[in-house]
Specification:
- The complex is a heterodimer of chains A (about 425) and B (about 110).
- Chain A has twelve helices and 25 strands.
- Chain A has about 425 residues and is α/β, with parallel strands linked by helices.
- In chain A, strands 5-2-1-9-20 form a five-stranded parallel β-sheet, with helices on one face. Chain A has a four-stranded parallel β-sheet with strand order 13-12-11-17, with helices on one face.
- In chain B, about 45% of the residues lie in helices and about 0% in strands.
- The chains are: A alpha/beta (about 425), B mainly alpha (about 110).
- At the A-B interface, α1, α2, α11, β22 and β23 of A face α1, α2, α3 and α5 of B.
Chain lengths: ~425, ~110
């Protein structure tokens, strides 16, 4: 039917509709709000969780998840694939659970966001309109930040910092390497995805070398002098891998400033190190669409209001996960999942005419130091007044000099965590 | 104030389901606001727990839902003590006041 809305005032229209439907104007407002269109960009721990929780809180909302890949490959636990303890198939999750929750999956790449028109453009040509947009775009590699490290170089010196083909490539290179070979890893300056990740990976590569290729060695070239869980890792390395792992910090000429992929050589200020297998973990930024949408700032990451997770740069766009500037919360899967849930709650409240609520947030990250031992770091945070802060007296790392039984118990807890968080995100 | 474009969407959505009102009635949330499905402050704070604690117990991490509030609170208070403990819970519980721990224990006890 034709209806020239321009000729009607909003009040008159609402009154007219209310009278024919026998519902009140306030119900009508609630109806319009809970029927909101919410689009989520990115199907990782943040985006998949956000889509499911929005649908749970607002069953009448129309929720669309935009994700080009039919299968998500999880980064947490992928270092165990590199270390040989786990299959890549154990890291793969589909979106069937989300479809079962009546979430629409747009299997396409988001190529543009217009925050004024409130639309997302996809690479298949379609345009999605939203009332609220949640962006969980993860990270992009800064291909221009490390001389010599481009997409072609990554096929020879894998980063394996997005799980999937790169993870398998690094594992295959390690398997193909002869006993006596040298593995070199370069770790970036902060901020980057998964702060303890390089050091868990180093532990598990060293574990593989010690077990299968004992004449081989891993050298970590680091752009930092300190890193997450550093005392725990250093203790574990001294105990388990004294002959198989060497860490060189920034002030010991550890910062890699150039690589040559054809010769697998990494260059520091004063040295050049030739690798048989090189794992270059390069500098990163928020996923590319963040820049297109105007939610990333000059740092390449996305500033947000910590209470609502709304971008401080664009209205009606919320950003969660690795892409955000959320420190002291780390760029972890736990953070992304929790931020997704709290963001979904905030959006549900905002769309229902309430304010977003500040709350207490926690984070836990487990890291394996051997195939069956792990250590952890935890933190507790507040998001009052739009900013994150650490709660004094809480958080910290596993005890040092602990019995093997404590490390083994944390490995079992890590496995439980992985099952729970993937179930929350993917069903 | 709604912008003209959202005005059109709302009007379109309503009239699409026909001036027949039945489907509209079915979709309107007529419950009072307090009973609607968006979470209150306590439910939001409990979201930190469910990233590790599933509805069914794991091999190592217990479920919380449906356990007695007294039992949960007693555990949380032990975790919150300043002496050393070995699990992440010893480091996390210290970030909460006794009032917050009590509320969380009550919340999970009610999630049967």
């Amino acid at each position: 039917m034709a209806l020239d809305t321009n000729l009607l005032s909003r009040r008159k229209l609402l009154a007219a509709i209310a009278s024919v439907t026998l519902i009140s104007a306030s119900d009508l407002k609630a109806f319009a709000q809970t029927r909101a269109k919410v689009v989520v960009i990115g199907g990782g721990f943040g985006g998949a969780t956000a889509a499911r929780f929005i649908k749970s809180y607002l069953p009448n909302a129309h929720v669309t998840l935009v994700e080009p890949n039919p299968i998500f490959t999880a980064c947490p636990f992928s270092n165990l694939v590199i270390g040989g303890q786990r299959s890549i198939a154990d890291q793969e999750f589909g979106y069937r659970g989300l479809v079962g929750d009546s979430i629409e999956i747009a299997q396409a790449l988001a190529t543009d966001v217009d925050s004024q028109a409130r639309t997302v453009t996809l690479d298949n040509g379609s345009v999605l309109r939203y009332d609220r947009l949640i962006m969980s775009p993860g990270i992009s590699i800064r291909w221009d930040a490390l001389e010599g490290y481009d997409r072609a170089a990554a096929e020879l010196m894998p980063h394996a910092w997005k799980a999937g083909a790169q993870t398998v490539l690094l594992r295959r290179q390690l398997e193909a390497m002869e006993n006596g070979g040298t593995v070199v890893m370069s770790a970036p300056a902060a901020p980057f995805r998964c702060p303890p990740g390089p050091y868990e990976r180093a532990s598990l590569i060293a574990n593989y070398l010690k077990t299968e290729k004992p004449a081989s060695k891993l050298i970590i070239l680091d752009s930092k002098d300190t890193f997450s869980k550093m005392p725990l890792f250093q203790e574990a390395w001294a105990e388990h891998y004294p002959d198989h792992l060497e860490w060189r910090g920034a002030s010991n000429d550890g910062r890699v400033n150039r690589v040559a992929a054809d010769t697998k050589t990494l260059y520091t200020d004063f040295d050049e190190i030739r690798a048989d297998v090189a794992n270059v973990i390069p500098p990163q930024k928020a996923g590319d669409i963040a820049e297109r949408a105007g939610v990333a700032d000059a740092t390449g990451w996305c500033p947000i209001n910590a209470t609502s997770f709304e971008s401080t740069r664009q209205p009606n766009i919320h950003v969660i996960g690795d892409a955000t500037i959320a420190n002291p919360m780390p760029k972890s899967a736990f953070s992304a999942n929790l931020q997704a849930k709290v963001c979904a709650a905030s959006i549900a409240r905002l769309l229902s005419g309430n304010d977003a609520l500040p709350t207490t947030l926690a984070n836990t990250c487990y890291s394996f130091i051997t195939s069956d031992r792990a250590v952890s770091i935890a933190g507790v945070y507040r998001n009052d007044d739009g900013a994150f802060s650490s709660v004094d007296g809480a958080g910290g790392i596993s005890p040092l000099a602990a019995d093997a039984s404590i490390r083994e118990a944390e490995a079992l807890q890590a496995e439980d965590w992985f099952r729970t968080i993937t179930s929350e995100a993917f069903g | 104030m709604l912008r003209p474009i959202s005005f059109l969407i709302i009007a379109g959505a309503l009239f699409q389901s026909g001036c027949s009102t039945l489907s509209v009635d079915a979709e309107v949330d007529t419950r009072p606001a307090s009973e609607r499905n968006y979470p209150n402050g306590l439910a939001v704070s409990a979201l930190s727990c469910t990233g590790c604690h599933a509805d069914t117990a794991g091999q190592s991490i217990p479920s919380l839902a449906g356990r007695s509030a007294d039992q949960l609170l007693a555990s949380l208070r032990v975790y919150g003590q300043p002496d050393t403990g070995t699990t992440v819970m010893h480091r996390i519980a210290r970030g909460y006041t006794d009032e917050q721990l009590t509320a969380l224990a009550d919340y999970f006890a009610e999630q049967a």
